[in-house]
Amino acid sequence: MSENLRTALKLAAAGVPVLPLRAGKLPVGNCPACAAVACGGRSNMREAGPCRCPAPCHAWAAATTDPAVLTSRAWASAWQHAGAVAYHPGGAGLTVVDLDNAAAVAWARRTLPPTCAVSTTRGEHWLYQGTMQSSNGVRPGVDVKSSMSYARWLGSGAGMVTALPDAVRALIVKAPAPVQPVRAVAVPAGGGRCPHRTPVYLERGIAMAVQRIAAATTAVHATVFGAFLAVLSTHGRCGCLTEDHTMRLFAAAQAKGESARHCADAWANARTRLGL
């Protein structure tokens, strides 16, 4: 049994989902079945679902605490060629602030609450108790690794793991893009009146769509399209939608980082889907 596998089994016993890393700190490559999405995951690794195939694949989604999987014949070759052990921080209830150089470490010491620190080749990993969305490049030399991500296991580090602070959560929050004016958006004619619903019902529908978009943390494109589709399916034929309504929907989408072009395209695609 390799030393990496021994380490992986100890971590798994402690509830830390692990996987093998090959040279270059990269996960074992996708198996042929998963390349065709046959395992039930997604082709995009960050959206992968738990692997159902026997081989480790899909990066973070392959991490497991099951010793039977870790020691299985399907994983034997992976451990034989593994250069290190990785783990899924989010699966262990952790967030890793990856500080890639001395300047990043100095910034963290000035800015973030102290916590358990693990030395890396060029910097440090700061570990916090709690999970959040992962994001790379949140500032120079700083990545956040938690849900849907993996980190190299480099030991337990020094110091106590403290609770995930708001200062770390704020690192991935981006300022809303300026709302661009909407041009040439088709709105059915009808004088703004809804012949089968009250104005209150329309207002509630717009407000719910805006809230749905604002609450999206992943798959923002799909959420925006779904919200547009829902509004148009109810009010797209009766003529009650005005440019003010579409502006509110577009503004909500742009606040989540969508471009004015994508908003117009999503609106047009939703109308086409409904035959409007």
Describe the structure.
The chain has 276 residues and is α+β, with helices and mostly antiparallel strands. 37% of the residues lie in helices and 14% in strands. It is built from ten helices and ten strands. Strands 4, 5, 6, 7, 8 and 10 form a six-stranded mixed sheet that branches. Strand 1 and strand 2 form a beta hairpin. Helix 7 runs antiparallel to helix 8, helix 7 packs parallel to helix 9 and helix 8 packs across helix 10. The longest helix is centred in the C-terminal third of the chain and has 16 residues.
Tell me the number of strands.
10
Low-confidence stretches: 35-49, 184-192
Strand content: 5-15%
Quickly count the helices: 10
Give structural attributes:
10 helices; 6-stranded mixed beta sheet; single chain; 10 strands; alpha+beta; 276 residues; 4-stranded antiparallel beta sheet
